[in-house]
Write a structure and sequence with these properties.
11 strands; two-stranded antiparallel sheet; 386 residues; 12 helices
Amino acid sequence: MKRTLAALLAALILFALVSCAASGPEEAQSEEQSQPRTEETEPPQTPTGQNDEENKPNALFYSEENVIDIYLVAGQSNAVGYTNIVDKNAAYEFAPELKNGFTNVLFAGRVRWDSGDYYTAWDYAWGRTKLGLGAGGGEKMGPEAGLAKALSEIYNETSGKTAGIIKYGHGGTSLLTKVTDSTGPSNKYGTWVPPTYALEKLGFRYGEYKASMTGALYREFLEVIKDRLFSLRSIGYTNVNIKGLYWMQGENDRNEPDEYAVAFGYFASDIRRDVAKIMRSMTGGDDRGAADMPIFVGTISQTQNLEYPRAESVNLAFIAMQKKLPDAVTNCYVVDNSQYAISRYDENTGKVNTVGLGSDQWHWNQADQLEIGYNVGRAFLTLGGE
């Protein structure tokens, strides 16, 4: 009798499993068929990774344990990190963990920078967040250093929680289509133009957009996100949450605040949609917070590159626009970096002067960059109720 009941129970379980497996693909196919796409209007798809098996939807990717919360950082040079590290001991006093890296705040990504007559990239595999993760050579830093210090207040060995920072950026690049010169980084590596803006406002066809330098940085950002998220599995993390994006960009677009506001609205919508697609491909349907992830906009400095007398008024107009972005974009917030001085206009010489201020006329100094990154981290944690 017991054997008969056991056999019957096993048969029922097998039937349930087969039924669940059969229903999933049919439902996915039905949803796909209800949303026809064309070559002319289809937004860019999630980038295809190198390992097709890893990129197949797999709900078993996730478990209740091995959780990691992901914070995205992107933009131009003040996101990449062109801040000169002039006093390592002072940085270690700010956060001793910056010397060997925060154990529970990991870092990965790709940054591009100007290296004389050419542009190059530095890829980071997953490792501890520490000092020197900016533009090449380990002697420069970005907001990730201060961000890690703030995050470590929650993500540490005591709490057992882990965070990961994925950073992608390129100095001197634009959210708009403008290219300042024929050899500049926007012309060589592209712009951040999001796909829907390109299609609806610039008249691109989907194939044209995908093949052009317009939006190339946007598309590569998605590739970097996908690659780094899928690689988390190889280091033991099987439960990934998207906590938000810090967007530090705009210096190259400061002369066009009105059009920037329009383009940013498209950028926010597109990046949420496309990161959500990546997450759903990992989980079999759950976007893990990506579809409505908070976006923190870092304002440019009021005194960024004061190379002529009216430059500060141009900066102020752009900053005023940035501060209004949350009025038009949901779940969008501002981190006000405008107070951190970078340069001044020298009336005696008629040139920009950075003595005692920024690393150069475009980038913050070490102390200010550390504080800015920390402010960003505290903003993320405060929003998250920590």
